[in-house]
Every structure is written in C-alpha cells, then in structure tokens.
Amino acid sequence: MPSLLRRLLAPTPRALERDSLQLPLADGRVVEVQRVRNPRAKRLRLSVDERGARLTLPVRASRIAGDRFLAEHRDWLALQLDRFALADVAGLARDLTATLPLRGADLPLSWHPGRYARLERDGDALVFSAPAQAGDASLRRALRDFYESEARADAGRWLPRYLPSLPRAPRRVQFKVMSSQWGSLAPDGSVALDLALVLARPSAFEYVLVHELCHLVRADHSRVFWREVEVRFPAWRDQRAYFHAEGRRLKATLRALLG
Questions:
Q1: Alpha-carbon torsion 200, 202, 203, 209, what sign?
Q2: What is the distance between the alpha carbons of residues 153 and 151, in angstroms, rounded to a whole number?
Q3: Which end of the chain offers a freer environment for a tag, N or C, measured as fewer CB atoms within 10 Å?
Q4: CA distance 21 to 35
Q5: What domains does the chain contain, in order, with CATH numbers?
Q6: Local structure of residue 131 (DSSP, 8 states)
Q7: pLDDT for 57 beyond 60
Q8: Distance between CA 99 and CA 124 in Å, rounded?
C-alpha cells in the first residue's frame, strides 16, 4: 500500500518543452535549431539528424547558457549540416521541383494540370498532375502515396524469394517515416520499413527487408542471426556501408519532400 500511495501522490513528470530559434552561421547561412527542455537531460547537448539541428537543455539550464553553448559549437554544427546535407534539402514546390529521387536516381519531373493531385511514372520520368487550387498538403499526400505504392511494389517483388525459408510469413508489411531505424519487427510479426528506403538503391532496400525477415528466425542480433542474413543476402555488408554513408541524406530528403 505505501508504494501505491507514493505512485498516486507522486508529482506529475514535467513534459518536454519545445521551441525553435534561428542561428546565423559563420558562412552567412541561418539555420533553425529546435530547442528542447528535457527533464531527463543531465547536460546541454547539440545533435543533428534528419530532422535538423536540436539543442537539448536540462530543466535548470538557462536560455543564456544554451545560446552560449550554441555559439561555441557553431562551427561544429555547420560541419555536421554540410556532412549530412541537411541545410540545403529542398521541399516539394509546384512547378519548381524538376526532379524527384527514386531508387537511387533523380528522375525528371514535369507538372501538368489535372482533376486531382496524382504522381505517376512515364517511362524513366515522372508526371505530377494537380488542379490549380491544390495546396501543398495535397501535393505532399500525392507524393507520399506514390512513394508508398512504389515501395510496396518492390517489397512484393522480393518477398516470394525469401518466404519459403522462413518459419512463418510476416503478418503484414507497412511503411512509415522513421527517425533513426530503417525497419523493425513487432511482436505480432508485423514488419515496419522506413519509407525513405524507396529513395535508396534497390539492393540496400532489399537488404533491410531481408534483415527484418530474418528476425522471424532469430529475434536478436547474435551470430546466429547474422548467419541467417548471410545465407540469404551475402552482400549485406556493402549495403550497411551504403547506409552509413548515405542514410542521413536519404532520411532528410524524404522528410523535406513530405514536409
């Protein structure tokens, strides 16, 4: 009972507090930095991922201390943004976006009037049709629908090759926009894959699918698991190296295009 009372009477944990600021860099660029006050944080921390730059502050840290920390690490931040190409990733812009990434290549894109927003393949090119009144959200939904359709087509083409060697088939395969992972396997056997995989070279996408399917055989990352991967996809090391080099850029590109 005392432990129950302690839980009931314990103060409600403080939620994350978020805002953003504009930080001028030495080269003249101005970048947006998300500022997060986290009750669990022990120290000031600056990080860069596909979502951009993020400054994490402990609850008791002042904004002045945070601003000073940012100024001291401004050159490091510029280097990270350049390395991961996060500062110059362009979003989807009607009549302005001339190419779109797909399967490791940039395909030419043309814009045309249409009854509703739709993106389609036309050989080795893409055609975006949309009514004049279509807003940015409508265009981004059409782009996401197109990418998901292409990703499902790829997964559907590869799956029959691997299913016979598995103890069971995945319950379903779904695509999400993931922050750090490329894929995951839920306890119910559902496979989730990052939608950004459709922007990568196909061999890398296929490797991630095989990786998650092998978790149906072995749930951990033991030597036994990697042997299962090796049997089905011997070139997995090359694909893992590819993600180390290109992964952040791929995720940042998708996030920018989809808003």
A1: positive
A2: 5
A3: N
A4: 7
A5: 2-83 (no CATH), 135-258 (3.30.2010.10)
A6: -
A7: yes
A8: 11
